[in-house]
Amino acid sequence: PAITNHMPTAELQKLDAAHHMHPFTTGDELAQKGARVITRAKGVFLTDSEGVEIIDGMAGLWCVNIGYGRDELAQVAARQMRELPFYNTFFQTTHVPAIALAAKLAELAPGDLNHVFFAGSGSEANDTNIRMVRTYWAMKGQPDKKVIIARKNGYHGSAMGSASLGGMAAMHEQGGLPIPDIHHINQPHWYAEGGDMTPEEFGLARARELEAAIAEIGEDRVAAFIAEPVQGAGGVIIPPETYWPEIQRICDAHDILLIADEVITGFGRTGNWFGAQTFNIRPDIMTIAKGLSSGYAPIGGSIVSDAVAAVIGSGEFNHGYTYSGHPVAAAVALENLRLIEEENILGHVRDVAAPYLQQKWEALTDHPLVGEAKICGMMASLALTPDKATRAQFAAEAGTAGLICREHCFANGVIMRHVGDRMIIAPPLVITPDEIDILIERAVKSLDGCL
Ligand code: PLP
């Protein structure tokens, strides 16, 4: 029989476990429990194969910024598939969707970030960045300037290069990572690692680890520093206010390229088009993906400064993906950006959704399990703790509190993710105050379930 939405859930789950290998999942566990089958979505709500409605506090994987079910994007995809489903952008050819999207991104991106190298995902874009910054310095006559400094607990993707930039220990344990000439410094995670310092002191101290690393490695060997404006997958870690200005100063002072990985923070998530604007930084390269197409089509890329593009463009950059600038994905992304502008979704975030969510979210610190509630635009985190005064962690052997909380969320019809004992959300940007009330009500019920 055909495998459709109408098949009983248990049968779908059995086939899924038998043939589908899932990312970041233990296959044996999946075979026992079965994955939740999502069948439809509209606005901020998902529906599963049992007909249960779930509010999506994670916008898929931080990407469905515009919300589900936008027919305009389906129309554009269908039109583009009929007109020109594929052509490449290699070897002196181009097409209108890639031209139009690159021009639009140059208009939206801050400063002199006017050039776009397309990829199929954020991981691919960060692999592009590794080769681009090393090639940049080599073409400028400094081939030894190739070390890239990144951060522990940063996330930059799953390909070999991008996972090497990432600072996820569990990922480095598998497959022989990191690749050479990547160096990791500590993250600005005050709640977990700040000790007795104030957040401001700690932000400065952690930023200065970059300067210390440059001194140790040698300025003539360091190509770039890469970081997420707000760490997303690491647990929505919002750096202290002192952090980014000091990082910018250090990159300027030591002639180090700054790569802002905006895969999550781009396209309205922090209330501006890019996190670089929210944190007042001037990157040389920004990584983009996810919200670029609101997840409706796979597409990513690097937005590159005039200065870097001029050097790279002076020779052949031996790099590219079959789907660099894929016409259907590019057309969908362009329409997504048009809708975000036309409907003033950034205005909705700034004036309505983010202030309302902030008020409700910060009130969660009254809950006995919540040690910290942090929010930046439409991305937010809770630190679960057995002792608010000492910011203590739950004993790992008791099973992480976050995992237990996530199970309650699952049962209560809300998607929140857990990273250790941090609960995180990043809902679609179009969420309304009424829908935020539903999200918070279900989140509280899930926290109460952990008591
Ligand atoms: N960079 C950041 C900051 C991300 O959060 C992610 C994905 O979550 C990536 C890069 C990788 O993007 P992709 O999964 O599209 O390869």
TrEMBL record:
SUPFAM superfamilies (alphabetical): PLP-dependent transferases
Keyword Transmembrane in record: no
GO MF term set: pyridoxal phosphate binding; transaminase activity
Cofactor: pyridoxal 5'-phosphate
Pfam families with a match to the protein in the record: Aminotran_3 (PF00202)
NCBIfam families: PRK06105.1, PRK07480.1
Descriptive protein name: Aspartate aminotransferase family protein
